[in-house]
Amino acid sequence: MSRKLCSWLAFAITACAVPVSTPARDFTSGYLLIGHPWSLPVAAGIPTGVAYLTVTDNGPGEELLLGARTPAAESVHMHQTVTSDGIARMRPLTQLAIPPGGTIRIAPGGIHFMLMGLRKPLTVGEDIPLTLLFKNAGEVQVTIKVESRDAVPAAEDPGNDTTGRSTRTRGGPAQRKSRRRCRR
After folding, report:
1. What 3-state class would DSSP assign to 4?
2. In degrees rounded to 5, what are phi and psi of residue 78?
3. Is the C-alpha dihedral spanning 121, 67, 93, 150 positive or negative?
4. Domains of the chain
5. DSSP state for residue 12 in the 8-state scheme
6. CA atoms of 142 and 139, how far apart (whole Å)
7. What residues contact 118, with CB distance under 8 A and at least 6 apart?
8. Listed residue (164, 168, 146, 167) closest to 155, CA to CA
């Protein structure tokens, strides 16, 4: 009986410590749920790419995301896009706090990972390994799926404002405001 119990406990502990991929391209590790890691394609000669995902902390205490790394790039930086007076700027982040029961959204137009010094172009359908570095959970391995812009949900598309209207077209509100500024 004790041998069976020890085997079951060993399995349970291992299952909690090893990241598991679910069919929805989500990954779990202990109390953490990493949702929909994805990127956009990058053509040859462009040295930077991006990565997006969500992190949910289902644990009893706060978790800190300290950074990330990937063999696809020389380095990975965390940035937050902040718009002030109509000008978007990227500010580096050293860590992100995830409160217990909370979710952080690393998405276009906000917090994002910059993949600096890409070793090769990122192509649609490609899987890119990414290691997330957490204060308490340690290293968590996930896979970023390179998706076409057409596959990006409207809410995560950097060309959409909060109403879901495209701002990439000539008539979008961002372009109209930009053209007015340029004429002055």
Report:
1. helix
2. -95, 130
3. positive
4. 28-149 (2.60.40.1890)
5. H
6. 10
7. 42, 46, 47, 48, 49, 72, 73
8. 164
What pLDDT is attached to residue 149?
Answer: 81
CA–CA distance, 116 with 73 (Å, rounded to integer): 6
Cα 68 to Cα 88: distance, rounded to the nearest angstrom? 24
Amino acid present at 132: L
The dihedral over CA atoms of 105, 108, 112, 115, expressed in degrees to the nearest 10, equals 140
Strands 27-29 and 32-39: antiparallel
Average pLDDT of adjacent 10-residue blocks, the chain of 184 residues:
40 35 71 96 96 97 98 97 92 97 96 97 96 97 93 49 32 37 39
Q: Which amino acid is present at 14? A: T
